[in-house]
């Protein structure tokens, strides 16, 4: 990858901005899936109306504008004109809690529709985000906080090179069972060594 | 007939300190002064040390910390029992009520009170409040590896090390780890001899 490479374009998916009106309808539907909300590790889990989702978008964009410590992307399908799925909203990818003086940030992402998971979209979005974080934002390291019951996310982040750094015992309580919170970290130099870029 | 009588002491009161609500009108000056101590700030906060006016501190206390609608945080001023002197703050943040977990943050701005058990006592009050008052299941905290005094204090209060975020802090041209610690309700109960007659 070099300066000519498009930061936001993958092969299967691309990273895009928020499309307030259209995306809110889709995301509101995703919140009907409690599994999705639990996988993201949210506290109070509840279905959201499109109006509520729009309010969240507004707060995110205001934050990005004023605090400059967060970057939010939609994940969209590359698609083609034939299958009519071009630009379809698949999920979100986000860098938060950026501490510029330490060069740190937290990464999270999700693919909203269960039927679209396991197809490599998340992995590709993660790859784009890591390149963006380390090569454009010049962060020194990234963190990820994942509930212990989210095996798919743990595997995906491990494959991308993240290491388990801390285990927050019994931080989650779901369906009568307690789970650890897994805190993972990836240093920029570790990522460079893996990718030689 | 004292044998089975429950202690009636308020949950906000410890042995050396008690917890009170900060008053933005009168306490903003305290916070502004404490934050001028860069050593204190760099031991306590990941945010880079900076200097804000008393007015800004008042605004911050009113808006961020004490806002009525805020349901995921509880913030206290730490005051000594003997002299009623305000020596620092302690609080819960990122409270996740469904999962029963919260982050603890503490800072003693008054240097004269460091290393004498005041911080540990404040932490024990907060633990009792969190576990017995709020029915939380676990408390989490992070502490910087270059702050051994705080690490010792937390270990004395029963917190257990759970890992470290490698090279998380960049200060003075060097990189330092940030240590994660946690305590579970049953661990705290065992330490406090809970369930036994007081």
Regions with little confidence, pLDDT below 50 for 5+ residues of chain B: 1-5
Q: How many domains of chain A, as an integer? A: 1
Largest sheet of chain A: 7 strands, mixed
| Secondary-structure-derived class of chain B | alpha+beta
Fourth-level CATH superfamily of chain A = Gcn5-related N-acetyltransferase (GNAT)
| H/E element sequence of chain A | EHHHEEEHEHEEH
- Shape descriptor of chain B: globular
Roughly how many Å apart are the termini of chain B? 12 Å
Q: Which CATH top level class of chain A fits?
A: Alpha Beta
Write the layout of secondary structure elements.
The complex is a heterodimer of chains A (197) and B (198).
Chain A (H helix, E strand, L loop, with lengths): L12 E4 L3 H11 L3 H6 L10 H17 L4 E7 L11 E11 L4 E8 L9 H15 L5 E7 L3 H9 L3 E12 L2 E11 H8 L2
Parallel strand pairs in A: 4-5
Antiparallel strand pairs in A: 1-2, 2-3, 3-4, 5-7, 6-7
Helix pairs in contact in A: 1-3
Chain B lengths: L16 E4 L3 H11 L3 H7 L9 H12 L8 E7 L5 E11 L4 E7 L10 H16 L4 E7 L3 H9 L3 E12 L2 E11 H8 L6
Parallel strand pairs in B: 4-5
Antiparallel strand pairs in B: 1-2, 2-3, 3-4, 5-7, 6-7
Please give a structural write-up:
The complex is a heterodimer of chains A (197) and B (198). Chain A has 197 residues and is an alpha+beta fold. Chain A has helices at 20-30, 34-39, 50-66, 121-135, 151-159, 188-195, and strands at residues 13-16, 71-77, 89-99, 104-111, 141-147, 163-174, 177-187. Chain A has a 7-stranded mixed sheet with strand order 1-2-3-4-5-7-6, with helices on both faces. The longest helix of chain A is centred in the N-terminal third of the chain and has 17 residues, at 50-66. Chain B is of the alpha+beta class. In chain B, 32% of the residues lie in helices and 30% in strands. Chain B has a single domain, classed as Aminopeptidase. Chain B is built from 6 helices and 7 strands, in the order E-H-H-H-E-E-E-H-E-H-E-E-H. In chain B, strands 1-2-3-4-5-7-6 form a 7-stranded mixed sheet, sandwiched between helices. Residues 1-5 of chain B have low confidence and may be disordered. At the A-B interface, strand 6 and strand 7 of A face strand 6 and strand 7 of B.
């Amino acid at each position: 990858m070099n300066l000519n490479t498009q930061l936001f374009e993958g092969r299967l998916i691309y990273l895009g901005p928020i499309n307030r009106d259209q995306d809110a309808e889709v995301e509101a539907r995703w919140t009907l899936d409690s599994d999705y909300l639990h996988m993201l590790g949210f506290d109070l889990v509840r279905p959201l109306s499109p109006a509520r989702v729009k309010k969240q978008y507004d707060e995110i964009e205001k934050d990005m504008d004023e605090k400059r410590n967060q970057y939010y992307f939609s994940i969209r399908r590359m698609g083609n004109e034939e299958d009519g799925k071009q630009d379809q909203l698949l999920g979100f990818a986000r860098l938060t809690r950026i501490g510029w003086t330490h060069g740190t940030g937290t990464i999270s992402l999700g693919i909203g529709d269960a039927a679209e998971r396991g197809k490599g979209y998340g992995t590709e979005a993660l790859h784009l985000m890591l390149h963006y974080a380390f090569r454009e934002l010049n962060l020194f390291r990234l963190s990820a906080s994942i509930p212990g019951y989210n095996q798919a996310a743990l595997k995906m982040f491990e494959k991308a090179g993240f290491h388990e750094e801390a285990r927050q015992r019994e931080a989650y309580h779901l369906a009568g069972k307690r789970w650890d919170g897994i805190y993972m970290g990836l240093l920029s130099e570790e990522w460079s060594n893996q990718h030689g870029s | 007939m004292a044998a089975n009588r429950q202690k009636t002491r308020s949950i906000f009161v410890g042995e050396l300190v008690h917890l009170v609500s900060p008053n933005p009108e009168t306490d903003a000056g305290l916070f502004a002064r404490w934050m001028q101590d860069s050593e204190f700030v760099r031991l306590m906060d990941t945010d880079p040390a900076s200097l804000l006016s008393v007015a800004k501190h008042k605004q911050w206390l009113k808006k961020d910390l004490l806002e009525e609608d805020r349901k995921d945080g509880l913030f206290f001023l730490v005051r000594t029992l003997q002299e009623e002197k305000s020596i620092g703050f302690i609080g819960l943040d990122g409270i996740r009520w469904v999962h029963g977990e919260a982050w603890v943050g503490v800072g003693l701005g008054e240097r004269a009170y460091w290393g004498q058990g005041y911080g540990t006592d404040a932490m024990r009050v907060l633990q009792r409040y969190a576990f017995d008052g709020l029915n939380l299941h676990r408390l989490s905290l992070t502490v910087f590896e270059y702050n051994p005094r705080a690490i010792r204090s937390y270990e004395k209060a029963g917190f257990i090390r759970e890992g470290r975020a490698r090279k998380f802090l960049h200060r003075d041209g060097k990189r330092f780890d940030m240590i994660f610690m946690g305590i579970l309700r049953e661990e705290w109960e065992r330490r406090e001899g809970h369930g036994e007659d007081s």
